[in-house]
Every structure is written in C-alpha cells, then in structure tokens.
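Honest question from a wet-lab person: if I give you the sequences of every part of a complex, can you actually get the arrangement of the whole thing, not just the pieces? Trying it with mine:
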Amino acid sequence: MTAEQTHRYRSDASATSRRRFIFNSLGMTLSATAVALLSGRTELARGAGTHTAQSPAEDVQILNTALAAEREAVAAYQLGAESTLLTPPVLKVAIQFQGHHREHADALAATIAKLGGEVATPPASYAFPVETLHNQADVLNFAAGLERGAVSAYAGAIPLFANRDLSNAAASILADEAMHWAILRQALGLDPVPGAFFS
Amino acid sequence: MIRRRRPHLRWLPVLLCAGVASAAPAGDPIRGASIYQRCLACHALSYHRVGPKHCGLLGRRAGRAPGYEYSAAMRDAGFTWSQQTLDAFLAAPTQYLPGTSMGYAGVRDARDRRDLIAFIAGASRDTARCPPAQGSEAQ
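Yes, you can. This is the full assembly:
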C-alpha cells in the first residue's frame, strides 16, 4: 500500500471512492452486524442466528481449538526466529510476540483444566510453508496472516461461549493479537490499521 | 390500516436484497480471498493445520480429508460440500453441525459467504495454490 493510500482525512469524492476500494479489496466493508448496529436495528445486531454453547464441555471444545491455534503460532514464531532471515530489532519483536502467544496458550490450557476439561495434546509437528519464506518480508507476511486470522478466530469465539467470563478473556487476547497484526503491517510498510471494523 | 402496514414495508428492501443475493450466480473470488483472511488462524488451502485443508473442498464429503482428525460430528455428518451446504455451514457452523470443533460463530453476510466460496472453489482449480496431489481427492 502506498503512502497516498493512507491519507484518511480527505473528504472529496475521489478519496472516498478510493477508500471504499481499499476497504473492499481488504474485505473490510462494514459487516452486516456493524450496519445493523449503526442503523439501530438491534434485533438484527443481536444476532438471532448465533448458537451459544450450552455447557462447559462445549466451552472446553472452543478453548481447545483456540489453544491449538496459539500453540501453532508459538511454533511459527520459533520458525521465524530460527530462520536467520530477521534483523536483530525484528527478531526481538518476534520473540516478544511469541512470548505473548505462549502466555495465551498457558492461560487457555489452565482454563480448560479448571473447567474439568481435557487439554488436547499438541501435534508432533506442524506443516509450515517454509519453501515460501525467502526473506524478512515473507516471514512478516506469514506472521501477519496468522495474527489477522487470530483476530477473526477470537471474534468468532466470543459470541459462542456459555460462560461470559470466557468471552471477556477471549476479548483481551483478541486485543493483543490485533496489536501484533498492526505492528507487523507497519514493519511491512503497510497501513497498520487499515479499517475501523474487523470481523 | 396504512399505518399498520409500514413495519412490513420497512423490510421490503431487505427482502429484495436477499432475493437478489441468492439469485446471483457466482461470487467474487478476489473479494473472497480477503474474506479468507478470517480463516487463516486455523486453515490453509493446501495443508492441514488446526482445521483441515480446503483444496478440493467442493465435491468432497464432509469430514473426510485424509490425514485430518475430525470431531465425531463432522466425521459422521454424511453430506457432501456444495455451494449450498457450505453456505449453510459457514453462516453458523456450530448451529448447522452441533458438536463441530470449529468453534467459530460464522460469516454472517451472505455476500461475504458467496465470495468466500468462490475463492475456495477457484483456488482448488489453481494448481499453484492447490497442487494436483492435494486437490485431486475431491473427485
């Protein structure tokens, strides 16, 4: 994305349509939920279709899926850190982010145990697209994709939990992943926060 | 009498839009690629991760990609992935298939789902994204 595309305060028609184009191309048009919220159609915004978990067992299943994704993120940052493709300052950030993911994983595992659930065993190995990682930008892009996905994964888990405390905890993890994503985009020379809504 | 009708009329544009949306033939795979970013915490096209790979998804039986360990619910789902089943699943996965381990509320917007499905279908036909060895089991 060019610097020109990050100009946000121009209000002429061409800037508006350019913004719309950028938003569209990033899949960041207002979600149906946002539109419903903004127009006050709360019966739609409340989401008649969301099936909430009915039991701690279902919550545990959601937590275990999130745990698997966090463990994979830890492994992915490890791969990046060991790749020798990262400059020292970027490596430092990668190791910091990896630490956050490890903390998320530990918190999720502890919560599963507290709920009486079984913490799934991690896989023996992960399939990563190593053949596509040739330089620092490749590694950052790969990590940014995982972080972007994590924002959605938690946004998609939050409405499902039977126990609202878990939704609260998931939101605090989501916030952290969103910051990672923004920093990685910044490091890639992209607009760090390319929109106002992300689902 | 007229007053009473207003609330119904208010929904008319929504209904019309819904009609147009479901009648429209194909989604936009380019827009769908950006929607697919939402899936990237758990999925990749060509290899299994937290969730199964998506190459060759359309036409494949649900819960049957070799080498991935599905929930009992998905393994025993008994349907085949088509535009229709995928659309219904992605709208609300845990509602469409209770017991699925895909703990994700879903993609609410019908157009987003259509574009997403167009992207997955298109990628499966693209040998760069989905090498033949990975996608061929769909047939």
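Two things worth pointing out. Chain B touches chain A at residues 30-31, 33-35, 37-42, 44, 47-50, 71, 91-92, 94-95, 98, 101-106, 108-109, 112 (CB under 8 Å). The CA atoms of residues 74 and 118 of chain B lie 22 Å apart.
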